[in-house]
Amino acid sequence: MSDTEEFIDASFFTSDGSSEKASELNSEQQAAESRNNLFSFRQLGSAVKYVEPVSGDAALDTVRQMFADDPELAAVPIEHNDTVVGVLTRKEVEEATGTVLKRFMSSDCIQYTKECPIVLYAREYFANVINKVTKISIERGLIYFPVYQLNKSFYGIISIDVIEDHLATIREQDLEKAKNVQQNMLPTETDLTALPFKVSIWNRMANAVGGDFYTAAKIADHFYVVGCFDVSGKNVAAALITVLLSAFFSMLKILQNAVSPDPSEITAKLDQYLTNVMPIGNFITGALCYIDMKTEKVKVFNCGHTLVYALLPVDKGGVQRVGLAHMEAALPPLGMGEITGELKGNGSNKKSVAIPLKSGLHIDMYSDGFTDMQTEDGTRFGEDRVKQYFMEKYKCAPSEIKKTVERTVDNWVMKTPLSDDITVMDIRFM
Q1: Is the CB of residue 232 less than 8 Å from the CB of residue 282?
Q2: Got the DSSP string for 129-156?
Q3: Per residue in 342-363, pLDDT tens?
Q4: Residue 280 to residue 172: CA distance in whole angstroms
Q5: What's CA 199's distance to the chain center, in Å?
Q6: Helix, strand, or coil here: 428?
Q7: Coil vs helix vs strand at 427
Q8: Cα→Cα distances 361→96, 125, 401, Å
């Protein structure tokens, strides 16, 4: 026979009242969380709070007592004819029962309830209801709104503040995702290292996402393209258009050697493509450098963009100096459908610049956010300082370029917010 004996210890099954109460509260909380988890973070149902409705025929003092019993309770849904018609807030009830006389004179709850003129469903999206909810909140002073299931059974209540906060969080998350997507469209350091020349790129967006774009890639044997672009407009709208640029150059990379290494043809096709897919009224300025390592030439197209600088060491009477030339915009912006005609018309040979590829050649490009950045007192950086910057950093090591740009920008703007995106690109042939 075993030394152990089966017996029942009643203490295993007893607990004090506080534990039972805590268990009930936890169950209610878990039930609420379970209900809200049925919906995505973007739907109202994910943030709705369920509160048991009170009959509109109940005395106002009933709701007053509910608020007194539960300090965290902010509002109570009021039901009339088996339908929740509105919500009474703590503040409204306190104002209506603030004195003994007011409590004595108070009537049924329905008399103090502002009827909600819209029906919100738990599966609706925050972004789709914010405008009408805000309008009604302003017009009628409503703070809380009843939310229903699709069968119009009551689901819970939600406040205008919760809707706005939730939507702000959603938009912030979306911007972060968009930022990551946009950054992934740009060439990485690994991509740049694989090029047979040095390319340094520094970029800072004025907002989470922006309208500056740049590329540096091989598109055929011995043939490369480096480009700096600036989309008209700002923030999300401009950032979406940069996707079009990314798609074009990604396709060029995929179709390596199937693309004719003709700079004029590629530039014209880019303009035609953007004209067909971009919304009317938008355009993109761009500076494109086509680098042919076989013929040892660089061909530059400036399409409505800022100046493109070329720097090359020259010997002046035995003294080594740096020669500087700039290329203005000889072509209209991309996406307007005019570049093909410009490149085929009279004087098309003047629409681009060919530069012999020599050791020591530097080509610098930038977006207009660089010239337009301002100090705290509103002084603009300007073109002269940009030119001086490129001259001064000519002897700077490639590894230091991005650091010098960042210092220049930070020292100029200090605490002033950027009004536009900034991109600075430096191409070097050793």
Answers
A1: yes
A2: HHHHHHHHHHHH---EEEEE-TTS-EEE
A3: 998 777 788 999 999 999 999 9
A4: 28
A5: 27
A6: strand
A7: strand
A8: 81, 55, 15
